[in-house]
Amino acid sequence: MKHLLICSALLVALALPAFPQSAEFGISAGYGSIGGSDISVSEIPATGSSASYTIRNGVRVGGRMGFNSRRFFGHEASYAYQHSGLDLQSSGPDGTENADLGAVRSHHFYYNALLHAAPTGFPIRPFVTGGGGFSSFFLPGIPSFSGYGSTKFGYNYGGGIKLNFYQYGIRFDVRNHVTGKPFGNYLPNVQGTLNNTEFSVTFYVLVG
Question: Following CA atoms 90, 92, 97, 102 in sequence, which dihedral angle do they give, to the nearest 10 degrees?
């Protein structure tokens, strides 16, 4: 307990020189955990066979541009690129087979509002956030900037904490991104929503 208090005191002392800033620009990296990731399931009762397509979890990189418009309120625009994969599981009378179909690449563009628990200039700023935007998913073999993606509008919500050090800062985010399931034009029986939980860290510069 003593060591924890000492570390907390040092962290606050290092962060105390932070001053109110109007904007934040940063780069982020993290991980996307996709829940309910079976995007397509088809069955053939006559043969007793079935096939399901699943999007795997993947790494994320991107950037954020934020503005502190009020003491406790801010807003930001963000972009993230996520590299995942697509799996096929097929089953029938002869058993079950699994196949890796290749990489699924996706682009995520969102606008969020942020409500902080501490005012601008405070060294430690927990926050909650919510916003909307869209995500574009690309099947294996389709270039991620080809324009032939499956675009879905969605929303996200979550929270995190910002730690400000002089003109720099680091923040940690956890957000759930909810969109419709992609690839309905290519795969059978695609319906429902996709939950992509983001765990990310962002290094940013504070601008006065």
Answer: -20
